[in-house]
Amino acid sequence: MKVLITGKNGQVGSSLIAQLTAMPAMDFLALGRKELDITNSEEVNRIVTEFRPNVIINAAAYTAVDKAESEQSIAHAINCQGPKNLAVIAKEINAVIIHISTDYVFSGDKEGLYTESDTVKPQCVYGQTKLAGEQAVAEACDEHIILRTAWVFSEYGSNFVKTMLRLTQTRLTLGVVGDQFGGPTYAGDIAAAIIDIAEQLQKGSHHYGVYNYTGYPYVSWQEFAVQIFESALANKMINSPIAVNAITTAEYPTPAKRPANSKLDCSKIASDFSIIQSDWHAALKSLKKYQ
Ligand SMILES: NC(=O)c1ccc[n+]([C@@H]2O[C@H](COP(=O)([O-])OP(=O)(O)OC[C@H]3O[C@@H](n4cnc5c(N)ncnc54)[C@H](OP(=O)(O)O)[C@@H]3O)[C@@H](O)[C@H]2O)c1
After folding, report:
1. pTM summary value
2. CATH classification code of 2-154+185-215+262-280
3. What pLDDT, in 10s, does the model give residues 58-109?
4. Best label site of 16, 148, 162, 263, fewest CB within 10 Å?
5. Is 114 known to be catalytic?
6. What is the DSSP string of 164-216?
């Protein structure tokens, strides 16, 4: 299988490389923004046509959720035009495109879990551009997988876990939002799910379309922070417990509105691809590598 990966320096991109490197049968080319800017359609066409992958994995994105409110056109170019460029050329060379999307396509007002067919209604610019990207990919290339995930963390890049660990250096008490709920998702688990899907598609699976995939169990940010600090204590990264008080979204205003409910129903990916949500606690066990 020949796989082209964009956004190689991101959380998911780095996790994909780490796993594919250990799979000798995989012929993959991973490129960062410097080597392949997905908004540049000529560059995309040239590189994809030269490499001729069976599978294109788009791990590139504009992920600065708050900054997107004031950088709408940049966010749109990266989150919509870029994926469209990749999907158009994927269709032309008969490749599959696997594109990553987000819980932010939903309003977060629903009670219970969001399924793939629930009404989309993004509440911020980032969510709007990611939804536009989903639609552009689906329109340009029938053989697409759009994987919606949420609350991504890993040893790479910047993320909530790393922010919490950094705060342990200066704080013994913290206020963390307790009224937003979701499934923290380890980027390594997303990478494993993507590789698994790519392999199944190459072996003849004909399942395409939108799939939810997040970690489990669902918690609030405050509950997630408590678990991070417990793990930090167990790993002897801190000497004394950190008190984490639940605050409300209203008490922690941000430029971009976030969904209160980011809990995604992941039963479709389980039934079509036998991919089961992973327990994110496992990825917190070896917390030292996040430093
Ligand atoms: N992080 C989350 O909590 C979260 C939640 C739900 C869904 N997602 C989705 O999951 C996917 C992966 O997220 P992530 O956390 O791995 O993101 P990330 O760590 O921010 O990585 C994104 C990568 O894309 C690259 N990039 C930006 N613009 C580009 C361009 N024009 N051409 C090529 N590469 C470009 C960035 O490069 P630079 O370093 O040069 O900017 C960065 O390395 C994204 O689609 C995101 O929307 C993320």
Report:
1. 0.97
2. 3.40.50.720
3. 999 999 999 999 999 999 999 999 999 999 999 999 999 999 999 999 999 9
4. 162
5. no
6. HHHHTTT-SEEEEE-S-EE--EEHHHHHHHHHHHHHHHHTT----EEEE---B
